């Protein structure tokens, strides 16, 4: 255990050092928020993959593999295909816009009110993304090191808040590259094959697990469809993802390297689902399936190697937590603070952006302390985001007849409907996303058609 702790502490020290180096590179607002829009293919691929693969993609997918088998990979598959989709179809027009936030698209198409209304939804989404991975960090550290949950949250999450605050996107990019390499080696090349071997090999999995565990649709078509509605389209409109797209040096880099990152996410999901299946053989009666990942690491790996895999898990979790935090602070600083402060425009200093990152980092830590389920927290975030913003954003980009009143109404009704059905039917239900999209679409189309035809909009391409 002492060797494992040393490896993890070494990893943490490296993250803080890279965060400090990133601070030295973040001299302007553009450096801090989008890494100067200057990332090459290697950095772009690594930071995009590391951003997507967080708490739900690691701990959550291992849990799904433990409960459902190979079909648990669909969560990561939906995320990965979303990355491929945005890389192929949206990266080019997004890079031409030279903006910082998703909501600026709505302002260009409609007016500042639409931007501010959508920013409130985006802020909640980004905070929950940050909190989701911070919860997962706490879970891993609690199980493996025997720390109280609140101590694990404050230690692990505090490190993320620190390096995100001081260096912004440059710190996130530099740490993401290391995190991408570590989680590739630790989770795909060490944990998965060693856990399967410990379980007796592939033949033992086939013999000891039900046949449904090898059925790619056993998780249920309703769940697969819901994953695509929530996560595939969520990737298309998430501030944390768009902010990574804005860092690409060129359209070709965003298109090619982004697509490779999406393929990597699908393969990563398969690896995590297989690890969960091995855990089911080795640990068939876990009291809490949320601990499947941490427990399989604890029982299957030797000292030292265990520390590397823990570092790999923390790498995946910290990258997504930091992405959510920076997305939240960017939305607050660029979209909401000018409205509240009465300041014209959206200019702000690096110092001001650091203050927002620190303050919202404290909010993320507080949220993580009171929420316990990573998949539930992630589902809440994406239900609100997709239910409230998918229809208005698609309308802003593709439908000239759309109006400002329709966009704002659709956002309000869609997000409220998602919240209502999450309370009524639970976070794991499919109804929140179905009804929120239906209500959002009907209200958006109806009000647009009933309103006066809008003046010609500014081009979004």
UniProtKB/TrEMBL annotation:
GO cellular component entries: plasma membrane
Bilayer-spanning residue ranges: 6-23, 43-66, 72-95, 116-137, 143-165, 177-196, 216-236, 256-279, 308-334, 355-375, 381-399, 406-427, 433-451
Pfam families membership: SSF (PF00474)
Membrane disposition: Multi-pass membrane protein
Keywords noted in UniProt: Membrane, Symport, Transmembrane, Transmembrane helix, Transport
The keyword Membrane is assigned to this record: yes
Molecular functions per Gene Ontology: symporter activity
Entry keyword Magnesium: no
Designated name of the protein: Sodium:solute symporter
